[in-house]
Design a protein that fits this description.
Radius of gyration: 13 Å
Largest sheet: 7 strands, mixed
Helix content: under 10%
Shape: globular
Order of helices and strands: EEEEEEEEEEE
Distance between the termini: 40 Å
Structural class: mainly beta
Mean pLDDT: 93
Number of helices: 0
Length: about 110
């Protein structure tokens, strides 16, 4: 049973950066779909970024040009680099590999 452990969340000022990590307890296979989602209070959980089977990327319009999803196969880890953060990015961020969810990590963007 694979487990996902998230880290990297916290409080950051507008315009700042954070890098979220999602470490898998077992090897992440190339054919796995990997993604980052977020959910703000009173809103639906939304897809933020994804790595597809073919190696392509998909981003929500609201984060294009600011967020980057990547992976390190040697470390069994998926990352979300978040730059130029805005207060609207405040949410709990969840990683997902196939049908397995991480526990979530809080990101708060505030001055």
């Amino acid at each position: 049973q694979v487990q996902l452990v998230e880290s990297g969340g916290g409080l950051v000022q507008p315009g700042g950066s954070l890098r979220l990590s999602c470490a898998a307890s077992e090897r992440i296979f190339r054919q796995y779909v990997m993604g980052w989602y977020r959910q703000a209070p009173g809103k639906q959980r939304e897809l933020v970024a994804a790595l597809t089977i073919g190696g392509g990327t998909n981003y929500a319009d609201s984060v294009k040009g600011r967020f980057t999803i990547s992976r390190d196969n040697a470390k069994n880890t998926v990352y979300l680099q978040m730059n130029s953060l805005k207060p609207e990015d405040t949410a709990v961020y969840y990683c997902k590999i196939n049908n397995l969810w991480g526990q979530g990590t809080q990101v708060t963007v505030s001055s």
